[in-house]
Write a structure and sequence with these properties.
Elements lengths: L1 E2 L6 E6 L5 E5 L5 E3 L32 E3 L9 E7 L9 E6 L5 E4 L2
Antiparallel strand pairs: 1-2, 2-3, 3-4, 5-6, 6-7, 7-8
Bound molecules: zinc ion (ZN) (2 copies).
One zinc ion binds next to loops.
Length: 110
């Protein structure tokens, strides 16, 4: 409860047109800003984490080598290929293929 500094009457919370609230004396109309008692909490909101966009490498396969292999999806006889370390470093990298026609990707099992 807040009391007017001037006349000692009870002050009530009044909402201003701007959206902010003030305390107003019921008798003399004296205004006092709200917030002394923590009514208005200002501060920075927790930063929203930005969505991490992972760009798919290999979407532009211009620099990738091609090989004569049949696509299991569309039977196109040519595909790009690249090596990729999948699991641990002591394991051999896996050979991947991508069809030059339909972009179907598959991996080679040995
Ligand atoms: Zn007053
Ligand atoms: Zn294909």
């Amino acid at each position: 409860m807040e009391f007017c500094e001037k006349c000692g009457k009870i002050m009530t919370v009044k909402k201003k047109r701007t959206g902010s609230s003030v305390l107003e004396c019921t008798k003399c109309g004296r205004e006092k800003p709200v917030g002394k008692n923590g009514a208005v909490i200002s501060g920075s909101l927790p930063n929203k984490k930005k969505d991490i966009v992972i760009m798919q490498k290999g979407d532009e396969a211009i620099d990738m080598p091609k090989t004569k292999i049949m696509c299991p999806s569309c039977e196109n006889p040519e595909a790009w290929w690249w090596m990729q370390q999948t699991r641990s470093a002591d394991e051999p990298p896996t050979l991947f293929y991508r069809c030059t026609k339909c972009n179907y990707s598959w991996r080679s099992y040995g």
